[in-house]
């Protein structure tokens, strides 16, 4: 990959200096060293009480040095790129080289570069303009307009809190194979919390959209879409009740329900959990985990998606990884360490929150591909008693056991094939592998949700998710 | 600990902000030195060494307000960053309620940072060898037992030295310094049928002499082994006992709902509750940030205002909202505490007397007789506007005060005020290493689904 000089200038470093740092990192006996330089500019504007009266900007700058000996990691970072600070970080990370022998033989534990077959880095961020050079005052009218659009749609709106946040991250990476890569990652998000009061009752909604692109993402169409989403279903929500709890069939609506795949299945496919034997999917490669026809992918290549990456944080090009193909578990999600452990090329899932963290296998945009079971109406028509879930939030999973939980933001009861009473304030619990094998119908209406999804596995990372409408048998629904 | 030069940089930032046109400014400079040794299956797996320094700025310019931060601390970068910060602030809408606090409210006793005695003077003598020994020696040294085998074990020893210097253009200077020593273990076991179960435990202390990680791995293993053979109970109403390790889950929604910002936005189930008896008389929550030697104590908040030991809820009566300077000006009320720093739920027995001796989960299960003990929450949500909650739980069915079997894939639902109205007891077993001092709690008549 050709790296422009502007990256060297931004970090005030040169290629010979990077080579020397890597050599220093390996002096302790490590067999791999990589450098991760980062310069992040983050800014936000907040509208409260109909005025954009708070905002700010933030800079995070530094370099992480990682040294591996087999699967063991030495990690240190510097918040400046002064030669002395970088050298100190390299020396601190090199200490892992003196750790007792690695569990794997050096040959098999050596990270796999995949240089010969690796895909070419993509260009998945359609940014026409750089957030850093845009005058932030020009975004203020957009937030005011969003406030007005939401209030204009529903007379019971009490408060609107709207936030525009945007960041641009420059990264420069170099490793002991001599691979040099760089990336400039934009991320823009608009999120809104709306409080509604009707007849003394209060309800709240949240809506958001987030993209890896430049300021041109802010359009009238986007603001209208967010405003629609903010007030959507509010009449039903005021009427909603908690249903009687118990085991039920659950129809998940296309789009945001895809977070189920992320939490309940995707994490258990991350190969660090597999390498350590912790995941419930350990040793199940090649086995059937879902019914025929089901495909689940993790994709870094969707233009503008929040989870997309031209290259991951180990310099591996972004790619699309099919985890489940036709119901068979085909691939785990690898960073370089787990890939080395399994003797495979990395799948480009090595991600980190910032230079302060070492990379670990993380999802990007995880979704299920379209099925052949018709429309969501067809699926609902086949359910005698169950719940239709439009939106989930607050998902959590226990990796070893595979147990997951989701909070249902909005949904309805299904009775005799028809949607009836709106429901709220309930959770759904289940077991990942069991739920995956209990998906008995998949519609052909795949929708990628563009909300501000953020994964919190040890470190935070922006991700995407999506799903067509699906029917899952027998999940536990919490109620009265 | 922050050096003299670092403190001077913070002071210069105030000067730079005023010079750039700010009317007032506040700066918070933080320094955190941390070392981590992680183990996998008893062997050193990862060694991390880091030093973080950052400056946060609050700019008040022309009746406008902005907040900024950077970790580029060379003077040239700061000068340019602060000039830009003032310019950015000026383009925002005016907000007449933004201001620095009344200087009379400032902490005047946070001069050295060491007044609370939570910074260990021996920290600088901690060696890499010591860290590795702590990580390795406190790992579990057995890999199987009756009906289970160990799948993996992750441990992590860490220590840190954190200091924070808050100053403003009205003359505030307040310094906080604390150290921390922590160890946690998370492990996964497999039963004879191949089912996996995980368990975790941790210990922490600000002072090395009070740090006792020796039993952490055993506690994590005990938690995992006890979960073998789980099932769901029949849905219905049960007495709920929540272990002290996780009982903050039903206390935090109360504290969040008392924040004046939530109240002002109408996004709180405790609107119009100040001074009223909302909770049962058995509930008293104090804030005790000024107890010397205790983790998470603080003499001042993020505005530099002095903290105090005081009641948040007393015998069920809401004593205060958390009102910072901004919200006080906006609501036209007096400011109070910005937030609960170290909230503590006091013990409670149905008799109204204070328990004599240990009163933890064993004693409370005996008091309750039959019910479900919750030892972990796995996701869920509390609607801050209404107080309605739904949480997935993991724990144990107990009868006659004794644990019978593990339960999982169950949910509890209700609303926070109704839940607390069924308070049976509060223990005296809150863990001192936690920021929220919440003991084992018991409630009557709670909805479980499974």
Describe the structure.
The complex is a heterodimer of chains A (480) and B (450). Chain A has 12 helices and 23 strands. In chain A, the strands form 5 sheets. In chain A, strands 3-2-1-4-5-6 form a 6-stranded antiparallel sheet. Chain A has a 6-stranded mixed sheet with strand order 10-9-8-13-22-19, covered by helices on one side. In chain A, strands 7-14-15-17-23 form a 5-stranded mixed β-barrel. Chain A is an alpha+beta fold. With 450 residues, chain B is of the alpha+beta class. Chain B is built from 9 helices and 17 strands. In chain B, strands 1, 2, 3, 4, 5, 6 and 7 form a 7-stranded antiparallel sheet that branches. The longest helix of chain B has 16 residues, at 4-19. Chain B is globular, with a radius of gyration of 24 Å. The relative contact order of chain B is 0.13. The interface between A and B is large, with 79 and 71 residues.
> How many beta strands in the DSSP annotation of chain A?
23
Structural class estimated from helices and strands of chain B:
alpha+beta
From N to C, what is the helix and strand string of chain B? HEEEHHEEEEHEHHEEEHEHEEEHEE
Question: Helix- and strand-based class of chain A?
Answer: alpha+beta
Beta-strand residue fraction of chain B: 35-45%
The biggest sheet of chain B, with number of strands, parallel, antiparallel or mixed sense and barrel status, is: 7 strands, antiparallel
> Oligomeric status of the shown chains?
heterodimer
**Helical content band of chain A:** 10-25%
Number of helices of chain B: 9
First-residue to last-residue Cα separation of chain A = 58 Å
* Strand residue content of chain A: 35-45%
Number of E-type strands of chain B:
17
Radius of gyration of chain B: 24 Å
Give the uncertain stretches of chain A in residue-range form.
Answer: 102-117
Distance between the termini of chain B: 51 Å
How would you describe the shape of chain B?
Answer: globular
> What is the C-alpha radius of gyration of chain A, as a whole number of Å?
24 Å
Task: Please give the share of residues in helix of chain B.
Answer: 10-25%
- Count of individual helical segments of chain A: 12
Output mean pLDDT of chain B: 95
């Amino acid at each position: 990959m050709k790296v422009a000089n502007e990256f060297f200038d931004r970090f005030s470093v040169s290629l010979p200096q990077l080579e020397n740092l890597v050599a220093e990192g390996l002096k302790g006996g490590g067999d791999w060293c990589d450098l991760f330089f980062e310069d992040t500019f983050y800014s936000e504007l907040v509208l409260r009480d109909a005025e954009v009266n708070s905002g700010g900007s933030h800079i995070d700058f530094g370099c992480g040095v990682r040294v591996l000996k087999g699967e063991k990691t030495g990690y240190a970072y510097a918040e400046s790129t002064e030669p002395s600070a970088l050298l100190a970080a390299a020396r601190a990370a090199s200490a892992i080289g003196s750790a007792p022998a690695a569990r794997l033989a050096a040959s098999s534990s050596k990270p796999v570069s995949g240089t010969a077959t690796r895909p070419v880095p993509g260009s998945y961020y359609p940014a026409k303009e750089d957030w850093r050079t845009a005058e932030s005052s020009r975004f203020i009218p957009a937030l005011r307009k969003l406030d007005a659009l939401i209030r204009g749609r529903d007379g019971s709106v009490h408060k609107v809190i709207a936030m525009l946040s945007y960041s641009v991250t420059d990264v420069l990476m170099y490793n002991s194979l001599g691979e040099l890569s760089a990336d400039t990652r934009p991320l823009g998000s608009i999120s809104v919390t709306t409080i509604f009061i009707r007849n003394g009752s209060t309800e709240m909604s949240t809506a958001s959209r987030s993209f890896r692109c430049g300021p041109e993402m802010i359009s009238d169409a986007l603001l209208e879409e967010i405003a629609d989403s903010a007030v959507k279903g509010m009449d039903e929500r005021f009427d909603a009740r908690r249903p009687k709890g118990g085991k039920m069939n659950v129809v998940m609506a296309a789009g945001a329900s895809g977070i189920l795949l992320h939490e309940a299945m995707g994490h258990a496919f991350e190969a660090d959990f597999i390498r350590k034997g912790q995941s419930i999917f350990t040793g199940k490669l090649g086995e059937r985990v879902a019914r025929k026809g089901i495909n689940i992918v993790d994709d870094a290549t969707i233009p503008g998606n929040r989870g997309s990456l031209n290259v991951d944080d180990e310099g591996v090009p972004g790619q699309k990884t099919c985890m489940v193909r036709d119901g068979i578990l085909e691939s785990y999600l690898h960073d370089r360490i787990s890939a080395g452990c399994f003797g495979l090329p990395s799948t480009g899932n090595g991600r980190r929150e910032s230079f302060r963290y070492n990379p670990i296998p993380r999802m990007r945009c995880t979704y299920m591909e379209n099925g052949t079971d018709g429309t969501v109406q067809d699926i609902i028509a086949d359910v005698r008693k169950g719940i239709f879930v439009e939106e989930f939030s607050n998902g959590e999973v226990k990796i070893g056991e595979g147990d997951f939980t989701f909070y249902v933001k909005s949904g309805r009861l299904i009775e005799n094939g028809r949607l009836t009473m709106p429901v709220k304030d309930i959770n759904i619990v289940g077991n990942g592998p069991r739920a995956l094998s209990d998906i008995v119908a998949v519609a052909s209406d795949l929708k990628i949700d563009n909300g501000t999804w953020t994964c919190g596995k040890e470190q935070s990372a922006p991700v995407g998710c999506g799903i067509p409408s699906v029917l899952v048998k027998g999940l536990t629904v919490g109620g009265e | 600990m922050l050096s003299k030069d670092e403190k001077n940089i913070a002071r210069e930032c105030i000067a730079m902000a005023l010079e750039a046109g700010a009317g007032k400014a506040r700066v918070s400079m933080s320094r955190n030195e941390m070392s981590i040794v992680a183990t996998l299956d008893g062997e050193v797996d990862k060694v991390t060494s880091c030093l973080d320094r950052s400056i946060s700025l609050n700019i008040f310019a022309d009746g406008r307000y902005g907040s900024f931060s950077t970790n580029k601390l060379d003077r040239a970068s700061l000068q340019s960053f602060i000039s830009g910060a003032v310019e950015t602030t000026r383009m925002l809408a005016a907000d007449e309620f933004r201001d620095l606090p009344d200087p009379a409210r400032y902490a005047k006793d946070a001069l050295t940072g060491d007044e609370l005695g939570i910074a260990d003077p021996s920290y600088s003598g901690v060696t890499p060898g010591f860290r590795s020994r702590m990580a390795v020696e406190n790992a579990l040294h057995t890999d199987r037992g009756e009906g289970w085998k160990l799948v993996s074990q992750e441990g992590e020893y860490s220590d840190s030295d954190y200091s924070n210097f808050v100053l403003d253009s009205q003359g505030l200077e307040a310094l906080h310094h604390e150290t921390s020593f922590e160890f946690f273990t998370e492990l996964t076991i497999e039963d004879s049928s191949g089912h996996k179960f995980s368990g975790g435990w941790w210990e922490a202390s600000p002072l090395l002499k009070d740090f006792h990680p020796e039993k952490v791995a055993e506690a994590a293993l005990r938690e995992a082994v006890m979960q073998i053979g789980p099932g769901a109970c029949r849905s219905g109403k049960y007495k709920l006992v929540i272990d002290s390790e996780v009982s903050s889950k039903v206390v935090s929604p109360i504290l969040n709902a008392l924040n004046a910002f939530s109240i002002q936005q109408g996004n709180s189930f405790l609107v119009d509750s100040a001074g009223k008896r909302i909770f049962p008389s058995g509930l008293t929550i104090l804030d005790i940030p000024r107890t010397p030697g205790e983790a998470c104590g603080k003499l001042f908040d993020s505005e530099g205002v002095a903290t105090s030991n005081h009641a948040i809820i007393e015998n069920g009566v809401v004593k205060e909202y958390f009102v910072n300077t901004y919200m006080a000006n906006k609501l036209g009320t007096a400011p109070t505490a910005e937030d609960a720093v170290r909230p503590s739920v006091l013990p409670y027995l149905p008799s109204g007397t204070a328990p004599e001796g240990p009163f933890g989960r064993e004693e409370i299960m005996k008091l309750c007789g039959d019910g479900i003990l919750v030892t972990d929450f796995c996701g869920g949500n509390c609607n801050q506007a209404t107080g309605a909650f739904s949480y997935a739980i993991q724990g144990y069915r107990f009868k006659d005060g004794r644990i019978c079997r593990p339960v999982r894939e169950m949910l509890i639902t209700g609303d926070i005020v109704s839940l607390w109205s069924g308070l049976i007891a509060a223990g005296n077993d809150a863990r001192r290493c936690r920021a929220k001092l919440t003991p084992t709690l018991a409630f009557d008549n709670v909805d479980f689904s499974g």
